[in-house]
Every structure is written in structure tokens, then in C-alpha cells.
Specification:
heterodimer; A: 383 residues; alpha+beta; 2 domains; 9-stranded mixed beta sheet; two-stranded antiparallel ribbon; B: 232 residues; alpha/beta; 6-stranded mixed beta sheet; 4-stranded antiparallel beta sheet; 6 helices
Chain lengths: 383, 232
């Protein structure tokens, strides 16, 4: 192997290398956290969507998000069941109720989901095991990841207490717990049967549903069935695939809140900070070695070779900074997930993106720092 | 090759600056150096010695006149031609100019890799020449852990590892005490004789003038042709 000049130069000064790696690692962590939080908040917004057991979703055409659904006629579900490849179509009722904190008697808005316990719609084993409980009148399951403003419901329930409180001024009993988590507009959630839901929301009628969940027969082609459903159903209902349904929700929050922008800006700041750090390191490094570079030019090395050395240094720095940055981000994700219940996970695609950004960051710095190389004039070194 | 002079300079002028600031540093230089010669160039500081050395070393582009090094005309040569000619010249600088982050062997190897067939060969050549300059015990030392004389020996090894046809040296003994200075010059003389190359050395050091085959004196940008054959 030829002399790895960039590597030898970087590793000769350990302290400077350590500072550089720490700086780049910091930028990497900043990007991981910002983009991670962004993804986690958007993923949090579709946690309920993701926990539905369905292949195709029916919604009212004027719906804009989970918290703002337009109801449609239950007849559309019966029509959907007639389409070949459809195994079943279940109604889901959604709405905000006023939940009374049993300790303080204050009421707060809580998100309620109602479905027919005879046709389980959730992928959550915990909910499916407690169907008998919500079949009882005025009994609900409470989200233990709800915010604390609703009172210590989960702790007291787990402690064996019987909890009775009011939703929309109607007495209800907490018959069990499940885990969902909060999101942009939802601070807490209840799950109950369709009949209980309609009792709590007296103004709603059974014939108007907020969401239709379509399950396919084994072997049916989802694309084909989706197209058939669109053809078979009138325009007062939208037919969405699972992915489209989740994108519909994320898209709403991305458009109507600055959250996506804020975190993208945070990641951009990480990129800029990293670029400046790497530039500083490379510039100092080139400046300190100008006489040596001039000597290399004098003995016959080309300017291109020296450019290559600086860019190799930039690339090595990006590698050396990314690895610890990635490892620490991984640990921070775990830590944050435990502390906040945000679905913060290491997505390989995001890791690849941030690695590419780190390399780009170092390349940009290298491109600015090599201008300093012009000062390496071999004619000066005999002076 | 042996019949062709290593350096052939005819009517070479050189100026710095432009217009009112124009300053002539070299006027009407004529100089020929053949293979095997060790020529010492003397003269007061500011007389243009260093400029002449950088022009011959292809580190600076000549302006007018003719300057042929190893048969290649440098007047009007491209940057790529200049880089190519530099690879056939060994340079020894006043301050050794070793790369501080490389060991003695790695410093020499950087030069050797420019012409060696493989990195393994470059390494072997570097070690061999470091042994020849008496540094077999210091191969893996960094420059900061070498004495001034040892560093200059590494620089000589680096200059000679590619068996150049021409060696240019600028005050190679200036930073050394008289004993190491003497040793370094004799080492250059001996290695150059072994390899049959020409040496052009700028020096003020009167203690070493006797190693030259002839000396050339420079004053105010002109060569004073008091060429004295010191040795037969």
C-alpha cells in the first residue's frame, strides 16, 4: 500500500483528532435527534392508524385528520362487502369526549374509539383480550400512556381500585388498560364498544360511521380490490390503502403545524455546525502543514495529489465522527423512548441519509479548505 | 546522456514585480554544469542565488533566455512539465523540510514512491539509503526525535533515493555544527560520486568549499566567472 498520508497526518496529532471527531459526532447526534424526533412525532400521529387490523380504509371525503373526521353512511360498508375479495368491513366511531378527572373533578377532552367487539378491529392483543370487558354497559378501556391531567387512572386501576368517573357527564367504569400514547392533538384515549360509544355521544347515530375498515379475503390483490371499491362506491366516501391512510394523517400535520419545518431546520443547523467544525479543523491542519505540502510539491507531487490528501482527510473525519455519533444517538433514542413513550427508533434509511449528509458536510468543508493549498508555493521553500 | 550537460543556461534574465516596482534579480546568466560535477555557488545574500536555484529546480517559471535541465527546456514549459522535471531532481533544503508527522523511513518513502515500481520496492529502497547515510538505528524515529545532523541525513537520503541526475542543495550545513556539516557534505559528495549525478550547492560555509570541483560566485544578479578548479 502506498503511504496513507492523510491517515498518518490525522492520527499524528491525537488531541486535534479527538476534538475533530467529537465535533463531527456532535453534529451527527444533532441531526439524528432532530430527524428522529420529527419522525417520531409523525409516527406518533399514526399510531392508532397502524394498530388497526385492515388493508383498506374508508373515510368521508371532507375528513382532514383523525381528530376531524366527516361521517359517512354505514350503507357504504355493506356495499363494500359485496365487492369481490372483501372479507369484511367494520365500522369505527371516533370522537372527543369530556373526561372528568376523578381526583380533581376537572374535565378534559379525551379521544374515544368505538367498535363492535364482535368484529375486532385492533392489532393490539391487550385490547382483544379485554373485549368481554367493553361489552359491559358504560365500560371503557383507558390508555395508560395518556397525559397525567386525566388523573392517576392507570396506577389506581393497576392497584386494584375500581374507577368510576364521567365521560360527557355520563357515568363510566374503567374496565381495563391499553397502551397507545399521545400525539399532536390527542392527550389521552379511551376504547369502548360501539354501543357504549353511542351512549356516550348521544347525538351520534349508529348509521353514520367515521371510519370503515376493510379486510381482504386471503389471496385477494389489494390494488385490485381498492380499484374495484373506488368504482363500486359513490363519491361520498374515499378509499385509501393502509399507507395512503397514514400518509393522509401525516400530511395534515405536516401542512398545518410547523413541526416538520422546525425539526428540519434543527437538522440543518447540525449540518452547518458540523461543516464549520470540519472546515476549522481542515483549515488549521492545512495551514500547519503548508511548508510540508510545499516540500512535497518541490519533490514532484502534483497539486492534485495534495487535493486528494485533504479530501481523504475530510472523508476519514466523516467516518470517524459518524461511528461514535451513530452509537451515541442509538443510546439516546433508547433513553428518550423510555422517558417519553415517543416511538423513537433507528431507521436504517435515516441512518443512511445522515451518513450521506456527514460525508457531504466534510466534502463541503474540504472544498473550502483546499483553497488554502494555493499558499503552498514550492518556490518559497528555498528562501 | 553523459555527453549532454545536466544544466545548460544561456542569457537567462529574471525580474520580480511589474512597472515601477520591477526589480531585476538575475541578469544574463550563462552556466553549464556537467554530470559528476559538484559546483558551489557563493555570493552575498540578495545576490540572486536562491532565485537561480528555484529556477533550475523547476520551482519557478523562467521568463527570458534559455534554461535547459536534463535536456528539457524550462522556458515556457507547462506546469505538468515542471512537475515531471522535479521528479528527476533531488532537493536538500536549508531547514531539512522533513514532514513532521512521518518517520524517517516514511519521509524517504514519500519521495521513493514517485518513481519506484511498487510500495514494497519504495520501502526497500528507502531503508537501504537510510542505512547508507548511517541511520539504520533511526528508521522509525520522527524528525522531532532526531538531531540536526540526523535530520539533514534523512533529507539527503530523501533527495538521493530516486538516483536523481541533479541534486540542488541550499545551505545544507547552515544549521549544523562544523563536524556534522563536514560529515553531511562528504556524504553528499560520496553518494553523488557513486550515483554519478551533478550537485549544485549554495553555501556561505567556507569550511566546505574544498569539496567542490569548482566554485561560482554571484553578485548583483550576475555570475562572476572566477571559476577555480579546486580539485583536479
Amino acid at each position: 500500500m502506498k503511504m496513507p498520508l492523510a491517515w498518518l497526518q490525522l492520527t499524528r496529532e491525537r488531541v486535534r483528532l479527538l476534538v475533530a471527531v467529537a465535533g463531527i459526532g456532535f453534529a451527527v447526534i444533532l441531526m439524528f435527534l432532530q430527524l428522529g424526533f420529527r419522525a417520531a412525532l409523525f409516527d406518533g400521529a399514526v399510531r392508532l392508524h397502524a394498530s388497526f387490523e385492515a388493508d383498506i380504509f374508508l373515510i368521508g371525503p371532507k375528513s382532514s385528520a383523525l381528530v376531524s373526521m366527516q361521517s359517512f353512511s354505514q350503507r357504504r360498508l355493506y356495499q363494500a362487502m359485496a365487492v369481490p375479495g372483501v372479507a369484511g368491513a367494520s365500522p369505527v366511531y371516533l370522537g372527543f369526549g369530556r373526561f372528568r378527572n376523578p381526583e380533581t373533578n376537572e374535565t378534559r377532552g379525551i379521544f374515544a374509539v368505538g367498535f363492535n367487539p364482535g368484529e375486532p378491529v385492533f392489532r393490539l392483543g391487550e385490547v382483544n383480550r379485554q373485549l368481554a370487558s367493553i361489552r359491559k354497559p358504560d365500560t371503557v378501556l383507558f390508555d395508560r400512556a395518556s397525559r397525567s391531567e386525566y388523573g392517576p387512572i392507570a396506577a389506581r386501576y393497576t392497584g386494584g381500585e375500581s374507577i368510576v368517573t364521567e365521560v360527557n357527564d355520563r357515568r363510566v367504569r374503567v374496565g381495563g388498560l391499553f397502551q397507545m400514547g399521545t400525539s399532536f392533538a390527542i392527550n389521552g384515549a379511551l376504547i369502548t364498544s360501539d354501543l357504549n360509544f353511542l351512549r356516550l355521544f348521544g347525538e351520534r347515530s349508529k348509521g353514520l360511521v367515521d371510519l370503515g375498515l376493510v379486510r381482504l379475503a386471503p389471496g385477494a390483490d389489494p390494488q385490485r380490490v381498492k380499484a374495484d371499491l373506488r368504482a363500486a362506491l359513490p363519491a361520498d366516501v374515499r378509499v385509501l390503502s393502509r399507507q395512503e391512510y397514514m400518509d393522509f394523517e401525516k400530511d395534515y400535520w405536516n401542512r398545518s403545524t410547523p413541526i416538520g419545518y422546525i425539526f428540519a431546520l434543527g437538522a440543518a443547523m447540525g449540518f452547518i455546525v458540523g461543516t464549520i467544525i470540519v472546515y476549522q479543523i481542515l483549515y488549521t491542519d492545512v495551514s500547519d502543514h503548508l511548508a510540508e505540502y510545499a516540500t512535497l510539491k518541490a519533490i514532484g507531487y502534483t497539486n492534485g495529489y495534495l487535493l486528494g490528501v485533504v479530501f481523504q482527510e475530510a472523508f476519514l473525519l466523516s467516518l470517524l465522527g459518524f461511528v461514535p455519533g451513530f452509537a451515541i444517538s442509538f443510546a439516546l433514542y433508547d433513553l428518550t423512548r423510555g422517558a417519553t413513550l415517543l416511538p423513537l427508533t433507528m431507521d436504517p434509511l435515516r441512518a443512511a441519509l445522515i451518513f450521506a449528509l456527514t460525508v457531504l458536510m466534510c466534502a463541503v468543508s474540504g472544498a473550502i479548505a483546499v483553497r488554502r493549498l494555493r499558499a503552498a508555493d514550492p518556490a518559497e521553500i528555498f528562501a | 546522456m553523459s555527453l549532454m550537460p545536466v544544466i545548460a543556461i544561456r542569457r537567462l534574465d529574471h525580474t520580480y514585480g511589474h512597472g515601477a516596482l520591477e526589480r531585476r534579480v538575475l541578469s544574463d546568466i550563462d552556466l553549464t554544469i556537467a554530470a559528476g560535477e559538484l559546483v558551489i555557488l557563493t555570493g552575498p545574500s540578495g545576490s540572486g542565488k536562491t532565485t537561480l536555484l528555484t529556477l533550475i529546480g523547476a520551482l519557478r517559471s523562467p521568463q527570458t533566455g534559455s534554461l535547459r535541465v536534463l535536456g528539457q527546456e524550462l522556458c515556457g514549459a507547462s506546469e505538468a512539465d515542471l512537475v515531471a522535471i522535479r521528479r528527476n531532481i533531488g532537493y536538500i533544503f536549508q531547514s531539512h523540510n522533513l514532514l513532521g508527522f512521518l518517520t524517517a523511513r516514511q519521509n524517504v518513502q514519500m519521495a521513493a514512491e514517485l518513481s519506484a515500481g511498487s510500495p514494497t520496492e519504495a520501502r526497500a529502497l528507502s531503508e537501504a539509503i537510510l542505512v547508507a547515510v548511517g541511520l539504520s538505528e533511526r528508521l522509525d524515529y520522527y524528525p522531532e526525535n532526531l538531531s540536526g545532523g540526523q535530520k539533514q541525513r534523512v533529507a539527503i537520503a530523501r533527495a538521493l533515493v530516486n538516483r536523481p541526475s541533479l541534486v540542488l542543495a541550499d545551505e545544507p550545513t547552515a544549521a549544523l555544527d562544523s563536524k556534522s556539516g563536514r560529515e553531511v557534505v562528504e556524504l553528499m559528495q560520496q553518494l553523488a560520486a557513486d550515483q554519478g549525478c551533478a550537485i549544485l550547492m549554495v553555501t556561505h560555509d567556507s569550511r566546505i568549499l574544498d569539496v567542490a570541483t569548482r566554485t561560482v560566485h554571484m553578485e548583483d544578479g550576475r555570475l562572476v566567472q572566477s571559476e577555480t578548479a579546486v580539485r583536479a
